[in-house]
Amino acid sequence: MVYRRIVRGVVRDAFEQLNRGNIGGLTDKLAADARHYFIGAHALGGRRSRPGSIRRWYERLFQLFPDIRFTVHRVDVAGPPWRTLACAYWTETNTGTDGVRNDNEGVNVIEIRWGKVRRVDIYTDVARLGGTLARLARAGNAAASAPAIVDPD
Domain segments of the chain: what residues? Predict the structure, then answer.
């Protein structure tokens, strides 16, 4: 279906924008009432529901992993334009601010309504991420041990 192909392209482009360090290329696709969730209790974990908080979350991601790069392996799309669900399966590589090379894998579950992203839920290997964040904190990166950026529900 043409619509699903378009959505796959939009999702892949959002990851490509992150690969370029362009936060706006991703956050501009969000609805004003979008929700953003990252699994786990750590500096990147929690739920956000305000555009400014979501932007700060992506800024923190780059404070921790300035050269983060995603490879999207598959994007599954289901549903009509008024309630589309896309799942993007990815691996990522980065060099933490301590110079150590890292990788991880995960999936983003994305809800889209009429072309605007309403929800992004990110699931990854939190044990691997937790070890990386602890290492970065020991190396002096304060963002690695900062409280999660969260909004009240």
Answer: 2-145
Residue 90 in contact with residue 73, Cβ under 8 Å? yes
Q: What is the pLDDT of residue 1?
A: 80
* Residues 104 and 124: beta-carbon distance below 8 Å: yes
Which pLDDT value is given to residue 152? 87
Fold of the domain spanning 2-145: Nuclear Transport Factor 2; Chain: A, (3.10.450)
Q: Which residues of 3-27 are buried (b: 16+ CB within 10 A; e: fewer)?
A: eeeebbebbeebbebbbeeebebbb
Question: What does residue 135 show for φ and ψ, rounded to 5 degrees?
Answer: -65, -45
The DSSP result for 81-140, as a single string, is TTSEEEEEEEEEEEE-TTS-EEEEEEEEEEEEETTEEEEEEEEE-HHHHHHHHHHHHHTT
pTM of the model: 0.95
